[in-house]
Amino acid sequence: MKAFRRMVGLAVVAGLAAGCESLDGFDLDNGGGGGGGGAFSQGFVFVRARDVLAVDEKGDPNSPLRLTTQGNAYEPTVAPNGRSVAYVYRDRARGVVELRSVPTTGQGQPSTVFALTQSTCPGCTDIRYPTFNPGSTQLVFTVAQGGSSSLARVDADGRGFVRFNNGNIGINSHGAASFLPNGQSVLSAGGASLNLHNQLVLTDVTSGLAQVYSFNLGNEAQSVVNRVAVSPDGAQVAFDGQTSSGTSAIFVAALGQTLGRVTQLTRHPGESGVSDSWPSWRGSTEVGFLSNAGGNDNIYRISIATTGTGTLVVPSALEPSYGGR
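Above: the chain sequence. Below: its structure as tokens.
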């Protein structure tokens, strides 16, 4: 346990060193990021009609930049350098599951980073949740095998694929991982089964050594639905937690030697059946997330200094991720 505490402490310390009318944070007068192309440096990427789209901070959220046209796109993630987006391409009819990358210019064609086959990953059936390291040179994602899933790593150019062993820590399934700022470790949700990710796991992406960081998610969150997201400064974690009502909300907690007090950020008083999910940090004081409030899937943002419903940022979206610089 002492060794584990040192692992977490060093990782976190290194990380620390290292409404529609509002549409706040986007300058709607400066073009860029529109449907006809243009520059993308930082903003949201998301899925609409199973293609990947992007909205730059200086772009029009009502006119996103289309990055793919082939469909079958899932769970995009932006490289920290803002130059590319990785996503899962899944065509079940043809038996194709790939990790692909596409430039954020809106002009290039997708390329295959890693194709899931029996020769590349024996027994594996699916890819989920890709995420870039801080240097934009590696991707960590999950691969499913039978009733379990494990983390895997590949270089952004497709070389060096490694699937990590879950080890003897009682974790048979991992959810989405998020890099700590040092680029050496990822934090993910994990648990005994695919449907119960109720612990937080810290994994060294070089050695594959995994340790349980927290055996619980606080008093209100029962399990992580999709994503754990570490803040850019490494001081906090956000996740979409399933609540006792069966819906999900965005929670946030401090990262240290142990998990700090878990706070529920998003609430929808007077509206039932609302789920908030897919958190990603927009800086270190604000979280972007997906919500079906009002019956539609849109991207919202919320300050970690408050609680509530959040502010609409991008309409009509799925599986959002924020990144770039």
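The domain at 2-324 is CATH 2.120.10.30 (Neuraminidase).
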